[in-house]
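Students often ask why inverse folding is considered easier than folding. One informal answer: many sequences map to the same fold, so there is more than one right answer. In these notes we will look at a single instance of the problem. The structure comes first.
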């Protein structure tokens, strides 16, 4: 779990370093009408992480369970690939663009909560919970935290793509 948390933190720091210098107009600008802005991507990341935290807290309140050994072989790293397109469930779609400071603050707060949850319960307990992912299926708690990091990596790539697109197109 320590390695998973280090990877999670490293990805988070890279993403924050990428979005911190972006101006407010760039942050909320969509590269195309059907594509998310950086603000919407950050809000989506926050919504996903908040949802994961809520589900992990519920699972921690229940009796320990185990994910089938075969299910534990599913690599959460596939989530980082931008080759496979997956439509986000409506519950984690951004509702409206938040201002940059609020979006980053919400995202940071969710990460702090997830880190505290991991520190409080540890890898052993996280291996005894089951999280139902809409695409990957049943994951244990450690794999779920790993998913969060790979999901963030995926969207960091998307943010870089959005920045390249808006850099090369005139403002509307």
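Output (designed amino acids):
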């Amino acid at each position: 779990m320590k390695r998973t948390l280090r990877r999670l933190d490293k990805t988070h720091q890279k993403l924050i370093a990428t979005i911190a210098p972006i101006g407010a107009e760039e942050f909320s600008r969509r590269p195309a009408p059907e594509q998310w802005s950086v603000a919407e991507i950050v809000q989506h990341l926050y919504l996903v992480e908040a949802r994961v935290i809520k589900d992990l807290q519920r699972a921690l309140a229940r009796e320990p369970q185990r994910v089938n050994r075969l299910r534990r072989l599913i690599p959460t790293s596939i989530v980082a690939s931008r080759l496979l397109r997956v439509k986000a469930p409506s519950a984690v779609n951004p509702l409206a663009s938040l201002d940059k400071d609020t979006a980053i603050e919400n995202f940071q707060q969710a990460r702090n909560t997830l880190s505290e949850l991991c520190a409080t319960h540890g890898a052993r307990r996280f291996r005894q919970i089951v999280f139902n992912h809409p695409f990957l299926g049943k994951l244990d708690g450690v794999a779920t935290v790993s998913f969060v990091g790979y999901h963030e990596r995926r969207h960091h790539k998307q943010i870089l793509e959005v920045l390249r697109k808006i850099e090369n197109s005139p403002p509307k």
